[in-house]
Amino acid sequence: MKTRNYILFYLNGERHQISGDQAGVMLSDYLRYHKNLTGTKIVCAEGDCGACSVLRFFPYQSGKKKNIFLPINSCVTTIAQMDGSHLVSVDALANPDHTPVQKAMMNCHGSQCGFCTPGFVMALTGLVEKKLCQKQTEITSCDAKNATTGNLCRCTGYQPIIDAAKNISISESESVAKRFSSAASQKDVAAHLKIPIALTGEKFSFYAPVKIKDALGYLNKNKSLRIIAAATDLGVVHNKRKSRLNQTLSLHLVPELYEIEKTSKTRLSVGARVTLSDLRLYVKDLIPEFAKFLDLFASPQIKNLATLVGNVANASPIADTPPFLLTMNTEVEIHGPGKKRFVKLESFFLDYRKINLSSKEMIVALHFDIPNKNESLALYKISQRKDLDISAVNFAARVSWADKEKTKIKDIKIAVGGVAATTLRLYKTEKSLTNEKLDQARLEKALEQLHAEITPLSDLRATSTFRHVVTENLFNKFFREQGVK
Ligand SMILES: Cc1cc2nc3c(=O)[nH]c(=O)nc-3n(C[C@H](O)[C@H](O)[C@H](O)COP(=O)(O)OP(=O)(O)OC[C@H]3O[C@@H](n4cnc5c(N)ncnc54)[C@H](O)[C@@H]3O)c2cc1C
Ligand code: FES
Ligand code: FES
């Protein structure tokens, strides 16, 4: 089989071919220290501040084709993971003149010390790109706030930046896609996406097959190979020198892993490479509660890369999607040597960061319910800050009612994160509410059960008592929202 031992991407319209250990360098370091493109700043090096934002277009996408450049954090991704991408850094924008985004930032005093400014310019350029694609000419405050959720500024207080965003002249803006990608570069990339990668340096190796069976072959031969998706979890750990990414298997060249599909009227299948942004777009009308909840997940820069499967496989007890997935009868589709198996998500989480997956196996997709419109579904996240913060507690409840008046529950699923070593289904609490008349006394009994069923820890995000109280409050909030007194 023909393989290549190099990574290919286009940066600011120029072709870059990288091999050996250099492929393991973080993209932000490559831009600044290898290419002297110092417009891109590095501040937190963990995806939290947005100063390192660049724009990226990658041809394989899920759901409807969008073909637009999206902002990503360059500090938590290796160059290897950018294989097949068209990238644009802030340095290339102002040529020959300032862009409408840059002009608006200057006119509205959106910059003071200036350190965060390149990141905001990239986030807002990504927003303009989206508006151009949707043929819209206006940016609202809400658009501006959503687009810059992943960018921190210590000086301006944000209002001048929001004013700048609203003053961007979209009609005078030129599409980044038009400026920085050509038919020739797209053809070159498309041809390369069909060729698997076997790149080995002294300290960094990166394999990227184009077929699932070849991925399993690599896993079978090499026990220490780490599957890498977007690395928004793994990349942070790598940057903090806690565990280095040196032997990685990427599934970015396997087209079927980008599929989101309704496999029946009531089930959805989400492939291992589906990003949270693509998923959010897909479920916007199908599961609006989940789409709205995803707005509270990280930042656009993170969601444009991070996968749903990565969130589940990372098995953090405070990961935000497992509570929802645990209420949706989720099955994890796992492929291993010579066989595939489907594991219920409840049995997939074994213990703290321990999952039911051997080193020779990989997750191919997650399959879960599309809730019926007559059911009630609520998803909550409690964190110290509303945006771009890790949860102290997250909570999901899904109820199928026995009657229209909502006086009796036919089926209930409650799942909570941050209150035990894994995200937890509250089976006993659920049982105490099923097929019983719902009244205050019943809810109080269920609350006592809930209190006994969770065992939260105290840590830097919250105390055990806080987590207890918050979980009980979320339980009450859910029933109040359903009109149960
Ligand atoms: C700034 C920042 C903010 C964040 N905010 C949130 C937040 O609000 N809520 C939240 O829940 N998380 C958050 N995260 C964590 C992270 O973004 C998510 O967990 C994300 O979904 C991980 O996906 P990924 O594709 O980056 O996974 P990766 O980091 O690439 O991988 C995560 C784990 O999954 C494994 N894996 C990936 N794909 C497969 C596969 N196909 N088969 C088997 N194993 C696989 C990897 O080996 C690794 O162990 C945040 C992270 C950052 C840096
Ligand atoms: S440097 Fe802060 S997000 Fe990358
Ligand atoms: S202008 Fe100084 S951090 Fe934003």
What is the class of the largest domain in the CATH system? Answer: Alpha Beta
C-alpha termini separation: 66 Å
Shape: globular
The appropriate CATH architecture of the largest domain is Roll
What is the number of helical segments per DSSP (H or I, 4+ residues)? 18
Would you tell me which CATH topology of the largest domain applies? Answer: Ubiquitin-like (UB roll)
Q: How would you write the strand order of the largest sheet?
A: 2-1-5-3-4
| Protein structure class | alpha+beta
> Portion of residues in helices?
25-40%
| Topology, number of strands | 20
The gist of it:
With 485 residues, the chain is an alpha+beta fold.
Description of the structure:
The chain is α+β, with helices and mostly antiparallel strands. The protein has 4 domains: 6-91 and 179-250, Beta-grasp domain (Ubiquitin-like (UB roll)); 100-173, DNA polymerase, domain 1 (Orthogonal Bundle); 255-369, Uridine Diphospho-n-acetylenolpyruvylglucosamine Reductase, domain 3 (2-Layer Sandwich); 376-481, CO dehydrogenase flavoprotein, C-terminal domain (Enolase-like, domain 1, 2-Layer Sandwich). It is built from 18 helices and 20 strands. It has helices at residues 27-34, 100-107, 117-133, 141-147, 159-166, 176-180, 183-192, 212-221, 234-239, 276-283, 288-294, 300-303, 308-313, 321-326, 345-348, 427-433, 440-453, 464-481, and strands at 6-11, 14-19, 53-57, 70-73, 86-88, 197-200, 205-208, 226-228, 247-250, 260-264, 267-271, 331-336, 339-344, 349-351, 354-355, 362-369, 376-382, 393-401, 409-417, 424-425. The strands form 5 sheets. The chain has a 5-stranded mixed sheet. A 5-stranded antiparallel sheet has the order 10-11-16-12-13. Strand 1 (6-11) and strand 2 (14-19) form a beta hairpin. Helix 2 packs across helix 5, helix 10 packs antiparallel against helix 11 (288-294) and helix 17 runs antiparallel to helix 18. The N and C termini lie far apart (66 Å). The mean pLDDT is 95. The chain binds flavin-adenine dinucleotide (FAD) and FE2/S2 (inorganic) cluster (2 copies).
